[in-house]
Amino acid sequence: MSHSSVLLQMENLSVTYFGPPDVVAVHGVTLDVKRGEILGLAGESGCGKTTLIGALTRLLPDNGEVTHGRIEFDGVDWLGLNEREVDQWRWTRVSLVSQSAMNSLNPVISIGEQITDAIFAHEPRTPKADGWDRARSLLRMVEVDPSHVHSYAHELSGGMRQRAMIAMALALKPDLVIMDEPTTALDVVVQAQIIHEIRSLQERLRFSVIFVTHDMSLLLSIADRIAIMYAGEVVEVGTRSILNHEASHPYTRGLIQSFPSVFHQRTRAGIPGAPPSMVNPPSGCRFHGRCEERMAVCSVYAPEDRDLDGIGHRVRCHLFGDSGITDRQPLAGRGEGSGKSC
Question: Rounded mean pLDDT of the chain?
Answer without folding.
Answer: 89
